[in-house]
Amino acid sequence: MSVESILSRRSSVGSWLKERLGLDGLQYPVPAHANALPYTLGGVTLTGFVILFLTGIYLAQFYHPHPDDAHASVVYIITGAPFGDLVRSIHFWTAQIVTVTILLHMLRVLFSGAYKRPREVNWYIGLGLLAVTLGLVFTGAVLKFDQEGLEALQHNKEAAQVIGALGGWFSAEFSRSVPLLTRLYDGHVTILPLIFGLLIIAHAYLVKQHGISPAATPEAVSRATAGEGGARFTTHLRRMAGYGFVVLALALALGLLWPAPLGQPGVAGAEGTKPWWMFIWLFPAEEAWGSRALATVPVILGGLLALVPIADRSPYLSPARRKGLLLAAALILIALVASGLVGALKPVEAHLQ
Amino acid sequence: MSPRTYATISLVAAIIALIPTTVGHAHDEPAIVVNPAIAAAGTSITITGTEMEPGEVFQLFLESASTSIELGEAIAEGEAEEGGFVMAIPLPSDLPAGSYTLRASTDEGETAVADLTVTAASAEADPGPAMAQEPSGEPHLLDRSKPAGEIAGAASLALASALLGVWLIRRKDPGP
Question: Contacts of residue A29 in chain B, CB cutoff 8 Å?
Answer without folding.
Answer: 176
